[in-house]
TrEMBL record:
<comment type="similarity">
    <text>Belongs to the UDPGP type 2 family.</text>
</comment>
<keyword id="KW-0808">Transferase</keyword>
<dbReference type="InterPro" id="IPR029044">
    <property type="entry name" value="Nucleotide-diphossugar_trans"/>
</dbReference>
<dbReference type="InterPro" id="IPR005835">
    <property type="entry name" value="NTP_transferase_dom"/>
</dbReference>
<dbReference type="GO" id="GO:0006011">
    <property type="term" value="P:UDP-alpha-D-glucose metabolic process"/>
</dbReference>
<dbReference type="GO" id="GO:0003983">
    <property type="term" value="F:UTP:glucose-1-phosphate uridylyltransferase activity"/>
</dbReference>
<keyword id="KW-0548">Nucleotidyltransferase</keyword>
<protein>
    <recommendedName>
        <fullName>UTP--glucose-1-phosphate uridylyltransferase</fullName>
        <ecNumber>2.7.7.9</ecNumber>
    </recommendedName>
</protein>
<feature type="domain" description="Nucleotidyl transferase">
    <location>
        <begin position="22"/>
        <end position="291"/>
    </location>
</feature>
<dbReference type="InterPro" id="IPR005771">
    <property type="entry name" value="GalU_uridylyltTrfase_bac/arc"/>
</dbReference>
<dbReference type="Pfam" id="PF00483">
    <property type="entry name" value="NTP_transferase"/>
</dbReference>
Amino acid sequence: MSEHSANLSSTVAATGRPLAVKAVIPAAGLATRFLPATKAVPKELLPVVDRPVLQYIVEEATQAGIGDVLLITGRGKTSMVDHFDRRPDLEARLEEKGDAERLAAVRRPSELAEIYTVRQPEQLGLGHAVGYAESHVGDQPFAVLLGDEFVKLSEPLLPAMLELQARTGGVVLAFFEVDPADTKRYGIASVEPAESELTDIGEVVKVTGMVEKPKPEDAPSNLAVLGRYVLPGKIFDAIRRTKPGSGGEIQLTDAMELLRTEGTPVHAIVYRGTRYDTGMPLGYLQTVVQIAAERDDLGAEFRSWLAEFVKADAAGGSGT
Ligand code: UTP
């Protein structure tokens, strides 16, 4: 038994509450910040080096012990599901060629988790999308992983969130610190210290409220909401009772806020690890560069090219 699964079992024994075993990945959004690339290709399938963003996200769930993943998809997004299917024709060709490495890479997505899908017929907001998970998830706690964001696999966040949710039974969020001047780009939380302890990956705080995209002078903190949530099953009832909010959309934040005001505890982990945001061109480019630079197979060559490029750029050349 791994150290992580040993911790998980002791948590279940200590609280009597089960850990979330299912994940939901809402990926039905229109991805307007990445147009025109995302007109025909879902942003979740944009490659980071040689794997689509969505594979990193499913790997993050799998690493946390989750083997059941529900993708919320929409029009033009069915290719996302194909990535997690087998490709016997391709596999046969690679087998013939004796290319064991690529064969393993092609098979890997289909071996990660059980993938299920449901369609959100109209893009009426993140809360609305999560609502479509109800018949798959039932009344058990579950994780939500947004389809355009992931964390470094060697600095895992989700296991600590799952354990915290099993302890509190409430809503568990994750925050990251932003430059105070940038608060208007994010959902920002007001918090107070939690009596509880530190996790391996960051401090635990109690959430007292959330504001969408406040101006720096109105922001209650510099803690921004990261796209990972662990939610109790009662969120579905709260979503049903949530009216359209900001942008006319049914917001998950509003449904969580409804639960909080009715007494459900809301905690968060202030994540100290590395977060990648692939939802818009700049964050996507930064992600590709960081991950490429760390790859065993091409990192060294890429880093030396990059260093040359930056040097030439600083000296006024194009570097290419
Ligand atoms: P975003 O706010 O990033 O929206 O949604 P988006 O459509 O993906 O991208 P932009 O802002 O237009 O560029 C956060 C997450 O919620 C999902 C998205 O797919 C994304 O993973 N989502 C959002 C849905 O599944 N359905 C919706 O109706 C809205």
